[in-house]
Amino acid sequence: MKRAFKATFIEDNGVSHTIEIPEGWSLMEGAVKHLVPGIDADCGGACACATCQVYVDPHWAAKLPAKTDMEETMLDFAPTVQPNSRLSCQLRMTEALNGIVLRIPKEQH
Q: Domain for residue 46, yes or no?
């Protein structure tokens, strides 16, 4: 059985959703499975849209892999991009990310 780790998604209105995501799953997959509002994942995780964008809490930024060129390109389609913007479909849950905090852009609600 896979281990699961916690991630907290915070909506623009302050409502938070702390969920458990199995190791190896994308943060987007976990959010969709737990019906986290604002993570639509229209492309199903193929890095072909920006409807799973999150703002990563700065404390966690150094623990994430670098953005790929494809992720950078897709973020160009997001309405409000910040330096800490990431696509949650491109972030895999690991033990190092246990407890990660992500904010959901207002435009995705």
A: yes
Cα gap 3→22, rounded to integer Å: 6
Q: Which residue matches tokens 């190791």?
A: 23
By the 8 A CB rule, do 21 and 93 touch? yes
pLDDT tens per residue, range 31-50:
999 999 999 999 999 999 99
Q: In this structure, is residue 6 part of a structural domain?
A: no
What DSSP state is assigned to residue 78? S
Using CA atoms, how far apart are residues 108 and 25, in angstroms rounded to an integer? 22
Return the percent helix, strand and coil in the chain, to nearest 5.
25, 25, 50
Quote the domain boundaries for residue 59.
15-108
Q: Provide the number of structural domains found in the chain.
A: 1
8-state DSSP, 67: P
Hunting for tokens 């494809």 — which residue is that?
70
In a domain, 7, yes or no: no
In a domain, 9, yes or no: no
